[in-house]
Amino acid sequence: MDNTGLPHLDVIRLGHRIDRDKRITSHLGLTARALGADSIVVFGDEDPGLIQSLDDVVERFGGSFSASFGKSPIKYLRSFKSGSGKFKPGTVVHLTMYGEDYRETFPKIRRDRPIAFVVGGTKVPGELFSIADYNVSVGNQPHSEVAALAIALNEWHKSVATKGKFFNPQIEILPSERGKSIIERE
């Protein structure tokens, strides 16, 4: 559990391609961090610059979000589900336009175990649909995986304040009706 009272939440990015997905995967990481995930694990082409970019955001804006690359997504998800990793057994939620409506599914998901939200890139392995505990859709039309993740995380954390997750920031943005209100610390 973290300081929000919720279990650890990973975002799993499948099929990252350096030449095509650099910005999308970066935006998935930024969205994951800003909306309360604890980490992102990227599967596909390794790009150290992507990890460094996300680490730099954490350093400047605070928190303990982590980003890393993985080798085998199916093996990782099986380990995540069984609890043979660093956490107790977890729940795998696959975000797909072919899934069941998130508004009906999210209330059924246990909140006392680690969660992995899986978002695809290139063609998702068919095996993922059976490994996932839940195949969930935010809409049944083609849409961006960043949008799907943002909607899913917003709904997942709807009643939880994520403000406390961003401790020790060098830069803090304060809500402002007009203009920019920024606090910079050394």
CATH class wording? Alpha Beta
What is the share of helical residues?
25-40%
CATH superfamily: SPOUT methyltransferase, trefoil knot domain
Radius of gyration: 16 Å
Major β-sheet profile: 6 strands, parallel
Describe the protein in words:
- The model has no long low-confidence stretch (mean pLDDT 88).
- With 186 residues, the chain is α/β, with parallel strands linked by helices.
- Strand 4, helix 4 (102-105) and strand 5 form a beta-alpha-beta unit.
- It has a single domain, classed as SPOUT methyltransferase, trefoil knot domain (Alpha/beta knot), CATH 3.40.1280.
- Helix content is 33%, strand content 25%.
Give a quick precis of the structure.
With 186 residues, this protein is of the alpha/beta class. 33% of the residues lie in helices and 25% in strands.
Blueprint (SSEs and pairs):
Elements: E1 9-16, H1 18-34, E2 39-44, H2 48-61, E3 66-70, H3 73-82, E4 91-101, H4 102-105, E5 115-119, H5 127-131, E6 134-137, H6 145-156, E7 171-174, E8 181-184
Parallel strand pairs: 1-2, 1-5, 2-3, 4-5, 4-6
Antiparallel strand pairs: 7-8
Helix pairs in contact: 1-2, 1-6
Tags for this entry?
186 residues; Alpha/beta knot; two-stranded antiparallel ribbon; single chain; alpha/beta; globular
